[in-house]
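Worked example 3 (structure in, sequence out).
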């Protein structure tokens, strides 16, 4: 029996913890995943089922749930697709990720900032990383000092992902001296990169 404690973890951490536990198996095993919300239950279930595992859920108490996974291993195990980790992330290869805001989606700005941070973290967990990440307009703030995503972006850069930020945008926001990861780029390079990309992903 393997227990994954994801109580209190925000999306996509419960799914990523569970995927790592599944990937570590060398023989069929039962994995119990503890989470504190129904969304995490649904996300963990979706990812585990995508590997061919049998999954059941149980509510243990208020804000306490258990997902039980009868996991396969070895040749029987399927690889969970990138969308099973987080629907907003790319599948890698020659993919270019374009981020134009410090928030993801519209509605609530605070939630939007939580979502974009979670999305960038989820990208760090992909088996195949994108080729390049481009930040412009409000997204330029994410690559600068004080950003909550700097550690994740530096991790991606160390693994070969090119991180670039629009120089005009940095100038406009007064952040040229605050860039903390990657390099400065220009609009021609941005357009050329997007034109030559196998796939463009824009999570904002």
């Amino acid at each position: 029996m393997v227990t994954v404690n994801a109580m209190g973890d925000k999306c996509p951490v419960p799914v990523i913890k569970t995927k790592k536990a599944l990937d570590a198996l060398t023989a069929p095993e039962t994995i119990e995943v503890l989470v504190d919300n129904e969304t995490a239950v649904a996300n963990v279930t979706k990812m585990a089922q995508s590997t061919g595992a049998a999954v059941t859920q149980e509510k243990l108490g208020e804000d306490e749930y258990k997902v039980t996974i009868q996991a396969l291993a070895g040749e029987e195990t399927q690889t969970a697709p990138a969308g099973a980790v987080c629907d907003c992330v790319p599948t890698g290869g020659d993919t270019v990720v374009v981020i134009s805001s410090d928030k993801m989606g519209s509605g609530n700005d605070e939630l939007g900032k939580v979502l974009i941070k979670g999305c960038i973290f989820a990208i760090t967990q992909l088996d195949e990383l994108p080729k390049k990440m481009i930040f412009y307009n409000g997204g330029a703030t994410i690559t600068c000092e004080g950003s909550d995503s700097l550690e994740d972006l530096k991790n991606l850069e160390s693994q070969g992902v090119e991180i670039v930020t629009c120089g005009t945008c940095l100038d406009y926001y007064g952040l040229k001296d605050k860039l903390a990861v990657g390099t400065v780029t220009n609009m021609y390079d941005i357009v050329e990169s997007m034109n030559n990309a196998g796939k463009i992903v824009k999570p904002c």
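Notes: The longest helix spans residues 109-124. The chain has two domains: 2-80, 88-201.
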